[in-house]
Amino acid sequence: xxxxxxxxxxxxxxxxxxxxxxxxxxxxxxxxxxxxxxxxxxxxxxxxxxxxxxxxxxxxxxxxxxxxxxxxxx
Length: 74
Hints:
The chain is mainly alpha-helical. It has a single domain, classed as Arc Repressor Mutant, subunit A (Orthogonal Bundle). It is built from three helices and two strands; from the N terminus they run E-E-H-H-H. The longest helix has 14 residues.
């Protein structure tokens, strides 16, 4: 399903988006985090599919898989 996430420097400043549709992954995650339900998102954005939302969640989950954390001097 990860092929649904695309990155193109010409679209949304190179941010990861859903199928090149100019819907940034971060926007979908923000909507979900705010409490918006999948059904509401799909009603508001009719060109999206359930799989698009699930792929955004999968993408975010993959980003949290890290091997090491290093302290950065501040």
